[in-house]
Amino acid sequence: MGSIKIQQLTKSFGDTEVLKGIDLDIKDGEFLILVGPSGCGKSTLMNSIAGLEDVSSGDILIDGNNVTDLSPKERDIAMVFQSYALYPTMSVSRNISFGLEMRKVPKAEIEKTVADVSQLLQIEHLLDRKPSALSGGQRQRVAMGRALARNPRVFLFDEPLSNLDAKLRVEMRTEIKKLHKRLGTTIVYVTHDQVEAMTLADRIAVMKDGQVQQFGTPYEIYNNPANRFVADFMGSPPMNFIECVVLDDKLVIESQGEKFELHIKHGERLKQAGVETVILGIRPEMITEPKPHVAGALVHSLPMQVDVTEPMGPDTIAFGQWNGTEIQARLSPEAGVEAQATGLIKVQVDTSKAVLFDAFSGARIDA
Amino acid sequence: MFDYLEKQLPKLIMAPTAIVMLVCMYGFIGWTAVLSFTKSRMLPQWEFVGWEQYERLFANPRWHVALDNLLVFTLLFIIIALLLGLMLAILLDRNIRNDGALRTIYLYPMAVSFIVTGTAWKWILNPGLGIEKMVRDLGFTDFEFRWLVDPDMAIYTIVIAAVWQSSGFVMAMFLAGLRGVDDSLIKAAQMDGASTFRTYWHVILPVMRPVFFGAVVILSHIAIKSFDLVQSLTGGGPGYSSDLPATFMYTHAFSRAQMGLGAASAMVMLAGVMAIIVPYLYSELRGKKS
Amino acid sequence: MRASTTSHKLYKTLFITLLLAAALVYLAPLYVMLTTSFKGIEEIRNGNILALPDSLNTSAWSKAWSSACTGGDCYGLAPYFWNSMRIVLPAVLISTVIGALNGYVLSQWRFRGSNFLFGALLFGCFIPFQVILLPMAMLLAWLGLANTVTGLVLVHVIYGVAFTTLFFRNYYVGIPTELVRAARLDGAGFFAIFRHVFLPLSSPIIVVSVIWQFTQIWNDFLFGVVYSGPGTQPITVALNNLVNTTMGGKEYNVDMAAAVIAALPTLVVYLVAGKYFVRGLTAGAVKG
Questions:
Q1: Which residue of B has its CA nearest to C286?
Q2: Does B6 touch chain A (CB under 8 A)?
Q3: I want to staple A271 with a disulfide (CB 3.0 to 4.6 A). Which of A249, B256, C47, C61 is the partner?
Q4: Which residues of B touch C260 (CB under 8 A)?
Q5: What 3-state DSSP class applies to C47?
Q6: pLDDT recorded at residue C283
Q7: A4-233 has CATH 3.40.50.300 classification
Q8: Residue of chain C whose Cα is closest to the Cα of A97
Q9: How many CA atoms lie less than 13 Å away from A307 in the CB half-sphere?
Q10: How far is B4 from chain A (nearest CA, A)?
Q11: Distance of alpha carbon A189 from alpha carbon A43, whole angstroms
Q12: What is the 3-state secondary structure (H, E, C) of chain B?
């Protein structure tokens, strides 16, 4: 009850192609996140699923039925909007019941649904108010209540948390996840916030320029990015990208005027590829203060000149330079204090999870 | 089928308006344009005479009087209404209490028809019984004020009545503009040590440029269309000394059976309005996009 | 410090004096109209235009209303007052309804070319009506509506819709499109969304549109004088005829009473809903 299949979907506004052949297979009950920078087409894709925008070509199937040409009301989909889009002249309870009223649901049933939904979302005390008398978080709940009341096959969330302050955003994030666990209804959720994407999703579709760059679980996306764009977009602080000269099956890093050779996981493949330079992608948490218990062929020790440190609490981000590129290392708070004081530290570089990209195209070359 | 209809509904709703607009605005403009190239008099005649009607029009001394009057009237009307409106708006903006009542008083003439305005001022300016008599009764027995019956001055009576009617509107526009000026801008100017006068002159008025232009466009539009006021105040007279293009057009098209000539004068009026409106609308729509 | 407060006070007094003086000038014509209308003819000839009437003589009013001559006949303004009502009420109602629907489409249901349509309509607010007078007269004659109230209603609707559409479009454009989207997902159609979501929001702009149209159409003279015949003339035309009827001696008191009668409906509307009147005037002039 709620699988979505999107096949070769394209959409153009005049000469600009906003969606360039999207293929997605969303399983029933899945929490799918569409993430990408603004203008990547994620909102257009969501509106196409909702039926609010006509597509240029391709098909959308819900539970195996082709709904591409159906109007929004026939698709049995509910949506939570970024601006909440609550009907300003209606009370909270009528906002929630309006969809049912339009679908000619019997009155008694409507009343029961409104009661259930408002209890679930803890907004019973707000039912008689107008949206203008609600706080941002309350509006958010009402908007979700309106969607829930219809008990649709699919929920669409269009950046629902972006208008909330930071603390409330984290709270609502957890609440949405709990709600999904409880209802088990398919959710398609658009966001530009990669933290939201990582924390909420069963699977993530990373989009850019109207194309899906990668479609996978948060673990896959984070640890095995399909290309440099995905690697850069997901993760905070972002992955370090260091252009390195290839020496046989090793990479050369220059720090403090000295050259160091880094062993990597797929050294032999690199050798076969026969390229002179590659981009080494390595996440900040793999550049740390020396940890004696971690050892092996892929663990190296390098000096790093520290320009600035940013204490985050649980750890400290240190900024330095290798091969003329700015890099970020993730240090323990204690190592951070030392780095700040001395300006020069020894760090441990673990390349076991490092990835390699083509210097020009940004494509993965080690996968 | 039903779905298809529902999808086309917005277009269907707009269709009657679009068609009527196409016919009754643009079609009719075209029709009038065609008429202006025919020798139509009492009834439309489709015998084309080229630019003859326009040549007749511009050879007609009465048309030149109407154009000269329009120039004098428009300039004086706009300048006086702007200055008066701006002055009232600035004075009102100085935190006067009960400004609601004052605003109501300045603006009420706008709610009244030009015919009523004309009737009232015709009586006030009446040479025998109006202002002239009032001043004479005060002891100035030689006082003369008979602009209404003076061919050289009649047009100025129209300016007086039109300013009375429309300056309140200018005041309302400027006041809305002034109240919309960002407070922090004024505070910043005061911190910089600017006097009230300088604050207005260098900071606030420049911000109000769009309001200013809007007012000029609307006033000139009122001026070019002015018809009712002339009809009721002077009837275009004495003689045709206070004719405006609008009254000229009406007289020739409907009273004198000179349809072709009337159409030509209407086209000239349209051209005049376009010369003002098109650049304005263009810049407004442009400005909104960016 | 003290000096500056004194000068400040001085300025403030000056400002208020200026404002009050201006108010008197603006009120003067209304005052003159009212006082004159209550005077007798002799009193007018001998007295001062600014003087108050000796007594409240209402004969000029009853004459203006029911027996003054307006051109050909001598029934006073009453029949023309009702003519105006018969023209204004349907024209206001119809043009407001059409304008509301048009504005709803042009702001929330845009289609290819709808912006162009709006631009073309907007331009229509500015054309001098002289340029459509002749063809419209022919169209009305062809439709058999020349010199009829229906014809005048039609003309006022056609050329009023540009304004009402502008009002509603500019008002609805401020309502987020997401509301329509939400309602469509809730299963509401074009009209249901209009009725349940937009109409309840529209009271202010409906008032603006109705007031604007009422004032415009009531005060219209050009269409009235061109497209009406004897018996269907609106009050502005009748007033102009009454004032310019040259038979017998001029009865200024009757003229003034008639002018006040013609002005009364719009003045009342203005006094009751002045706020909306100003909004209508400035709509489209000051930024949207």
A1: B211
A2: yes
A3: A249
A4: 116
A5: coil
A6: 59
A7: yes
A8: C186
A9: 9
A10: 10
A11: 10
A12: CHHHHHHHHHHHHHHHHHHHHHHHHHHHHHHHHHHCCECCCCCCCCCECCCHHHHHHHHCHHHHHHHHHHHHHHHHHHHHHHHHHHHHHHHHHCCCCCHHHHHHHHHHHHHCCHHHHHHHHHHHCCCCCCHHHHHHHCCCCCCCCCHHHCCCCHHHHHHHHHHHHHHHHHHHHHHHHHHHCCHHHHHHHHHCCCCHHHHHHHHHHHHCHHHHHHHHHHHHHHHHHCCHHHHHHCCCCCCCCCCCHHHHHHHHHHHCCCHHHHHHHHHHHHHHHHHHHHHHHHHHHHHHHC
Least confident of A188-192, C149-153, C162-166: C162-166
ipTM: 0.87
CA C254 to chain centre: 23
Q: What Å distances lie between residue B186 and A46, A236, B205, C31, CA to CA? A: 46, 43, 11, 40
Express each pLDDT in A351-360 by its tens digit. Answer: 989 999 988 8
A352 touches chain C (CB under 8 A): no
Residue A333, preceding peptide bond in cis (omega within 30° of 0): no
* Domains present along chain B, CATH in parentheses: 53-289 (1.10.3720.10)
Contact partners for chain C, using 3 or more CB pairs closer than 8 A, are A, B
CA of C270 vs chain B CAs: smallest distance (Å): 6
Query: Which residues are within 8 A (CB) of C57 and not within 5 positions of it... i.e. 6 or more apart?
Result: C38, C39, C40, C253
Q: What is the pLDDT of residues B28-46, one digit of tens each?
A: 999 999 888 888 887 777 7
B104:C271 CB<8 A: yes
Architecture field, domain A240-358: Beta Barrel (2.40)
And the tokens for A356?
């390699």
Q: How far is C78 from chain B (nearest CA, A)?
A: 16
Give me the phi and psi of C262, to 5 degrees please.
-65, -30
Domains in chain C: boundaries: 2-57, 78-282
Q: For residue B226, is pLDDT > 70?
A: yes
Contacts of B104 in chain C (CB under 8 A): 271, 274
Q: Which helix (H) or strand (E) holds C31?
A: helix C2-37
Tell whether the model's pLDDT for residue C286 goes beyond 50.
Answer: no
Cis status, amide bond into B279, omega within 30 of 0: no
Enumerate residues 120 to 179 of chain A having a beta carbon within 8 A of any beta carbon in chain C.
146, 150
Q: In this complex, is the C-beta atom of C51 within 8 Å of any C-beta atom belonging to chain A? A: no
Q: Taking CB atoms and an 8 Å cutoff, what residues of chain A touch B3?
A: 70-71
The CATH homologous superfamily for domain C78-282 is MetI-like (1.10.3720.10)
Which comes out higher in pLDDT, residue C45 or A101? A101
Q: How far is B13 from chain A (nearest CA, A)?
A: 19
The mean per-residue pLDDT over the stretch C219-230 comes to 89
